[in-house]
Each structure stands twice: as C-alpha cells, then as structure tokens.
Amino acid sequence: PAPSVDFRTRSVAAFFWGLKPTGGYGLEVVGITYAGGTARVILNLQSPRPGAIVTQALTSPYVILELERVSRVVFTEPSGRVLAEARE
Fold it and tell me: Using an 8 Å Cβ cutoff, are 3 and 40 in contact?
C-alpha cells in the first residue's frame, strides 16, 4: 500500500524524465530548499557513458517525493537550469 500522507501539512511532487532508449539513465535528488512557499528540488540527471554496457530495454526514470506543504515546486539541475515546475 502507498504510504499515508497528511496533505494538510505535506505535499507530494513527481518528476518524470521521459522515455529513454536503454538502461543506464537515473535521477538523484541532491538537495531540497524551501523559500516563500516554493520547494526547489535539485536533481542530478545521470546518463550512460558512451560505450557503456547497458540494458537494451526502454526505461522511464522518475522520482516521487514527499515535501513540506508548498504551493509551487521547481525541479532544477545543480547548475540552476529549470527542468520543470508545478503549482498547486
């Protein structure tokens, strides 16, 4: 069963990176900051190295997070480049 979430005090956000042609792709949450009703989730997007041996199957990397209650979530790379954002 899914974990219990108190939506009065918590939020849930998801980032879906999309369909990838092979294995070897991944997401790592490297930080979360909160300011002014916004959660900034910093993601490290991982791709296979050229020539790497990877699973020959379609993959869809994603992450689902429980956060403090916020009205806006911004997913960024460590460089600050915005990947996606959502509002309540």
Answer: no
The answer to the question of residue 59 being in a domain is: yes
Average pLDDT, the chain: 96
Backbone angles phi, psi at 35, to 5 degrees: -160, 130
Does residue 5 fall inside a structural domain?
no
Query: In this structure, are residues 81 and 74 in contact, taking their beta carbons and an 8 Å threshold?
Result: no
Question: How far from the centroid of its chain's Cα atoms is residue 75's Cα?
Answer: 7
Number of separate domains in the chain: 1
Whole-model pTM: value is 0.90
Q: What is the pLDDT of residues 17-34, one digit of tens each?
A: 999 999 999 999 999 999
